[in-house]
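Sample intake — RHH-type rel operon transcriptional repressor/antitoxin RelB
Collected from: Paraburkholderia solitsugae
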Amino acid sequence: MKRTAENKLKVVAVRVNPQIEHRLRLLAELTGRRQSFFLQQMIEGGIGAMEDAWLPPDVLSRVRSGTMPSRQQASDAISDLFGSALPDEAS
């Protein structure tokens, strides 16, 4: 599949304790796969359980249906109190 802006993979940084990092590195070395492959598999395999445990049912249904905007999208939609764009500082 050709990468486009919509399906481009994003980078996420995470801190783990040294023992976990060592196990992940060994898993990658011994299998010939990248650490990122295993991390992606773990995230994809476990995010549903985390959502079930941490999100209220109404939020969970919106997340899974794709109708929950990201915080960035929500903040981009906010304008000033009067619903207009903020004035340009040069004006």
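Post-analysis note: The radius of gyration is 20 Å.
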